[in-house]
Design goal:
heterodimer, A: about 100 residues, mainly alpha, B: about 500 residues, alpha+beta, 3-stranded antiparallel sheet, about 40% helix
Chain lengths: ~100, ~500
């Protein structure tokens, strides 16, 4: 049975932009491994005729009518932003990627 | 960004390599509100005035699916001859970028709403190319970044960016083709015609205004080369943001010539995202595939699955409008145009114009004559589209009715047309203002005939003697005297009466 390595935890943390200390990585690798192992055990028990369950509610087709609702007030919204200009959110320069 | 790149002449490249390409088209749906929330969406609104907690990804905000957007997606799927999923889910595509405030895009992953379809693409020479559709899935658009400090709003050299979230959450349908093989040297044309076909389809279906210049329809082009149609597929590049028909054609062409040069040099094509530059007509490498491409898709827990009732799907299918290709075939039959004539009309973008002109009372032949003749020449001179000429099908219909009523002949009609194009008013107004009406009163005609006969006594003598050959000379003189406003047939009758009577 596979185990979750410290490196994998570090990689997933980086993908999620979570900055973990070395101590946290060690601890989480152990804790997450328990979860992974537990899920693996469930997978062993589930037979192929049991579909994977992503949504426990027995609901489908919950649709909203295409009717507009009032928007948020822009000034109020931008007041909560670290920086704004010309009615837009100002964000730090985007590095390492292209638009 | 101007790095010199070796290119192989296009004809040379396609003589030695077989291009295989695929196209992803994103279309913004023309619903009133966004995909997952009730924020209104419309083009040109003030920045950040069409936002809700869902648009901004605020904590605790819950999405809800726009039923109309689902219906539009099904319409698109059906028009593309796809199967509609009995059940499908949304998924989170996780990545960090300022225009995606939730830090994930709500999309569909391995369960698209529509799959396994095809669409026939009519090419300019009248042949048809069938493009296989792999899938069409629903997702949401991102916000819009404006890079400040970079040259011309470009990201390079930008010091910071401004984000407008009006577009964040606008419903999109992404249509993905299977690898398109067998187009050979015509790959650029097929690519362009495919995107054009989809644009026409979106408009006909009423699911989007599909205005390229507003970014309603956007294309990404994947392309690879192989040494022969039997060889395994080569490494492909994906060129992003190819957002006009012409750009699609040029980008395919450019990548063929660039990749051919790479392969000729014995190197391998790098699998990468490339950016299309409309100004210079080239592509340049974009971000390198890395961890950033690990999207960690998982089913969207906040949205329950979609399981379209088959009866609903059939209802949508039954209500589909006549699709553009079928419509063209029907109109060709109704108008009695030859294949080549119809093809020219289609290529000139004149189908709707002629249809409206016929509706305004002109015969199909007359409508075609105007739009494909005088007006096509004028449009070409001015380097604009036919539809952008300052004249309407109704005006052409009215003009033709003046001809049919015998009030003007073809030559005068062209002068009236000129007046309408010059903004002098409706055909009737131009006719009156310019005094172009055919002279139908015999009085002035007889006077002109007498003058002509007097001026050419030898000709008059011959006619009197029964030689009708020189009648044309008299008619010509009369037409000249009346500045072309006489009915030539009537003039002939009158000349003969005068001479022989």
């Amino acid at each position: 049975m596979s185990t979750l390595s410290r490196d994998e935890v570090a990689r997933v943390a980086a993908l999620a932009r979570i900055d973990l200390t070395s101590v946290e990585l060690d601890r989480l690798a152990g804790e997450l491994d328990v979860i992974v192992q537990s899920v693996a055990r469930v997978a062993e028990i589930a037979t192929p005729d049991v579909p994977a369950t992503s949504h426990p509610l027995p609901l489908t087709n919950v649709f909203r009518a295409d009717e507009p609702v009032p928007p948020l007030d822009r000034d109020e919204v931008l007041a909560g932003a670290p920086a704004a200009q010309e009615g837009k959110f100002a964000v730090p320069q985007i590095l390492g990627e292209d638009a | 960004m101007t790095t010199s790149v070796d290119l192989v002449d296009y004809d040379e490249a396609v003589s030695r390599y077989d291009p295989v390409f695929g196209i992803e088209v994103h279309v913004e749906l023309g619903t009133r509100t966004k995909m997952f929330d009730g924020a209104e969406q419309s083009f040109g609104a003030e920045p950040n005035t069409q936002i809700t907690p869902v648009s901004l990804g605020l904590p605790g905000a819950l999405p809800a699916v726009n039923g109309t957007a689902v219906e539009y997606a099904i319409r698109i799927g059906l028009a593309l001859n796809c199967s509609i999923a009995e059940r499908c889910r949304f998924a989170r595509k996780n990545y960090f970028y300022p225009d995606v405030p939730k830090n994930f895009q709500t999309s569909q992953y391995d369960e698209p709403i529509a799959y396994d379809g095809w669409v026939d693409v009519d090419l300019e020479d009248g042949t048809t190319f069938r493009v296989q559709i792999e899938r069409a899935h629903m997702e949401e658009d991102a916000g819009k970044n404006t890079h400040v400090g970079g040259e011309g709003g470009r990201i390079h050299g930008a010091t910071y960016s401004l984000v407008d979230y009006n577009r964040a959450g606008v419903p999109l349908v992404e249509i993905v083709t299977r690898p398109i093989e067998g187009a050979g040297a015509r790959a650029p044309e097929v690519a362009r015609a495919y995107v054009q076909t989809l644009r026409d389809l979106f408009r006909t279906l009423g699911v989007s205004e599909a205005r390229m210049e507003r970014g309603n329809v956007r294309a990404d082009v994947n392309l690879s080369l192989r040494t022969s149609p039997d060889a395994p597929l080569g490494t492909r590049t994906e060129t992003k943001n190819v957002n006009s028909f012409r750009a699609v054609e040029r980008a395919v062409r450019y990548e063929v010539t660039r990749q051919a040069a790479v392969l000729d040099a014995g190197e391998t094509v790098v699998q990468e995202t490339r950016h299309w530059h409309e100004d210079t007509g080239i592509t340049t490498p974009g971000r390198v595939k890395s961890d950033a491409e690990d999207y960690r898709y998982f089913p969207e827990p906040d949205l329950v699955p979609i399981a379209p009732d088959p009866a609903w799907v059939e209802e949508i299918r039954a209500a589909l409008p006549e699709l553009p290709a079928a419509r063209r075939r029907r109109l060709q039959g109704e108008w009695g145009y030859a294949d080549a004539e119809m093809r020219d009309v289609v290529n000139a973008g004149a189908v709707e114009l002629i249809e409206a002109t016929v509706a305004a009372g002109a015969s199909p032949a007359a409508a075609r004559k105007w739009w494909m003749g005088e007006l096509a020449r004028t449009a070409k001179q001015q380097e604009i589209e036919l539809a952008d000429l300052p004249i309407t099908p109704a005006q052409i219909g009215a003009l033709q009715q003046l001809v049919d009523a015998g009030r003007i002949n073809d030559k005068l009609a062209r002068q009236v047309l000129e007046g309408v194009l010059a903004g002098e008013g409706e055909p009737e107004q131009v006719l009156v203002a310019r005094g172009l009406e055919v002279v139908s009163d015999d009085g002035p005609l007889l006077a002109a005939i007498d003058d002509a006969l007097a001026a050419q006594p030898d000709v008059a003598e011959k006619i009197r003697g029964g030689n009708l050959g020189p009648v044309g000379a008299i008619i010509g003189a009369v037409m000249k005297a009346t500045r072309g406003q006489a009915d030539a047939a009537r003039v002939r009758e009158l000349v003969l009466e005068r001479v022989q009577g």
